Amino acid sequence: MSSEMAPLLQVEGLRKWFDITRGVFGRKVGQVKAVDDVSFTVRSREVLGLAGESGSGKTTIGRSVLRLVEPSAGRVVFDGTDVTSLNTADLRRFRRRMQIIFQDPLAALNPQMTIEEVLSEPLIVQGIGRSDADRRNRAVELLDSVSLSSDYLKRRPGEMSGGQRQRIVIARALAVNPEFIVADEPVSALDVSIQAQIIALLIELKGRLGLSMLFISHDLAAMEYISDRIAVLYLGRVMEIGPSSEVCGNFKHPYTEMLISAVPQPEPGYQRKIFPAGEIPSAASPPSGCVFRTRCSYARPECAQIVPQLRKVAEDHYTACIRDDLSLSRVLL
Amino acid sequence: MKNRNALIGFVIVSIVTTLAIAAPWIAPYDPATTSIRLFEGPSAEHWLGTDQLGRDIFSRILFGARVSLIIGAGSAVVAGIIGVPIGLAAGYLGRTVDMMAMQFINLFIALPGLVLALIIITMTGATMLNIVLVLGFVAWPGVARLARGQTFAIRESVYVEAARAVGGGTAWIIIRHIWPNIFRLVAVQLATVVAFAIFTSSSLSFLGLGVPPPTADWGGMVRSGVDYLSVNPYMSLAPGFSVAITIFGFYMLGYREE
């Protein structure tokens, strides 16, 4: 994959600030900076992983890219079109190209609708297929692409298992033949035994349909497996971004070190690094300078002064840490 | 528990509705035909006795059920036609629309329904159509508030977000996702509107602002019987009991855990 090629998706300076209001008249008393100046690209047929704890803004980024929430500032450019400036009619047409897979498949499916209705919805809304029969054929095709039989057409979400429901959610996203998919924690709500199957399905579909993907997760192990590149988020900012192998094996940011060390390792005698306990600070009052400094083992006084910018550490690999003298490792040396 | 309440309500409402529909065939006498047998107590010929004009009370009860049910159902339809769209709009669009709708709804809910109905009926005159329109107008805020609350909850659901993600517009989402999910609760709320309308229209009749005579009407029957309570108490008791049991039935049908 050459980095000179124009990216399919380009996110520039994305911000999403939610106002905190109080009282009947909605007096503004503060702001939550859920996403603060985030930039990244996704190349054609590439999977970019967005990693981070809850509250890191990764879900809001996914929603903003699809304009399911309106970004406060920044641009989302998809294949040359600025998604943030599309009007309602153009946005509707554009939704054929970008789709989303949700975390909790039970919540993502209307309990009243049969699977046939669920899979027909995108087709009707987008004006695909001329008749019910057309749409039924397409629904059967979609079920087949997620390895479910046509028997499921008449079922309702309540009559299915979690893994089957997630397959339906995936099939619905594929109904409009999108090029790009936001997968928002697609396996975190599923049983561990099912997770691998769904990941394998996503990889198979990606290869077969040539999909590009934004894969959002807090599970770095799964992410390393499926992603070409990974962006690590903390309090709405990108801490480190680079090729998966680099970010997971040769990480340059203390926060990445902390996340990686939290992943259980199947090696005997492995001793994980112990980090000071702590919660992610509130995005309503983020720390000054580097937002991670309050939990960082390597923080220095100047970390409170400077907001670190992404700096290049290797080809395609950037970190937002001012310290270039660290030797980070997942194991205790 | 809830199901048993609904079942009791369903049985009562079914019986009352059946009797109302079948009234012309099962009523032993014409409800408006007078006779010289005044103020009679219950007998084999007149099961519930006769009134001050010698009319058969049982037959008048059966025909009165029609009036009550038409007013009740009509008012519920009117309340639904006004309340559901306003509730859906307030709940789905939110913000300014919601704020304005809620102020309006709360204003209406704060006013006592009977008094409001009384004032409007006095101004417009008591015809069946006016009563239905007025009672529906008095009852819509409750329907709107329920529809708004339910819409609000479903609007935030992930499957509505999924519908937006595939390009579903406001009308599509309301018709395809929100309405099917709130329909049952709205129907239940409308059952209590029926009960309210029967109760209030009977009260209006009792105050002399109901369906004009000679139409057999339960509230009016109670009123004319009051003057003769010592002569023939069945004139008031029978229609009064009919109102009570019918309202009880509709409330049971519309009972829901708060």
Topology:
The complex is a heterodimer of chains A (333) and B (258).
Chain A: E1 9-22, E2 27-42, E3 47-51, H1 58-65, E4 73-78, E5 81-82, H2 88-94, E6 98-101, H3 115-125, H4 132-145, H5 162-174, E7 180-184, H6 192-209, E8 212-217, H7 220-226, E9 229-234, E10 237-243, H8 244-249, H9 254-262, E11 311-314, E12 317-319
Parallel strand pairs in A: 3-8, 3-9, 6-7, 7-8
Antiparallel strand pairs in A: 1-2, 1-4, 4-5, 9-10, 10-12, 11-12
Helix pairs in contact in A: 3-4, 3-5, 4-5, 5-6
Chain B: H1 2-26, H2 57-93, H3 95-110, H4 113-124, H5 128-155, H6 158-165, H7 170-206, H8 218-226, H9 234-253
Helix pairs in contact in B: 1-2, 1-9, 2-3, 2-5, 2-7, 2-9, 3-5, 4-5, 5-7, 7-8, 7-9, 8-9
Explain the overall architecture:
The complex is a heterodimer of chains A (333) and B (258). Chain A is an alpha/beta fold. Chain A folds into two domains: 9-97 and 178-319, Rossmann fold; 112-177, no CATH class. Chain A contains nine helices and twelve strands. Chain A has helices at residues 58-65, 88-94, 115-125, 132-145, 162-174, 192-209, 220-226, 244-249, 254-262, and strands spanning 9-22, 27-42, 47-51, 73-78, 81-82, 98-101, 180-184, 212-217, 229-234, 237-243, 311-314, 317-319. In chain A, the strands form two sheets. Chain A has an eight-stranded mixed beta sheet with strand order 6-7-8-3-9-10-12-11, with helices on both faces. In chain A, strand 4 (73-78) and strand 5 (81-82) form a beta hairpin. In chain A, helix 3 (115-125) crosses helix 4, helix 3 (115-125) packs parallel to helix 5 (162-174) and helix 5 (162-174) runs parallel beside helix 6 (192-209). Chain B starts with a helix and ends in a 5-residue tail after the last helix. Chain B has helices spanning 2-26, 57-93, 95-110, 113-124, 128-155, 158-165, 170-206, 218-226, 234-253. In chain B, helix 2 packs parallel to helix 5 (128-155). Chain B is built from nine helices and no strands. The model of chain B has no long low-confidence stretch (mean pLDDT 90). Chain B has one domain (2-16, 54-253): MetI-like fold. Chain B is elongated and about 75 Å long. Helices cover 74% and strands 0% of the residues of chain B. Chain B is an all-alpha fold and 258 residues long. At the A-B interface, helix 2 and helix 3 of A face helix 6 and helix 7 of B.
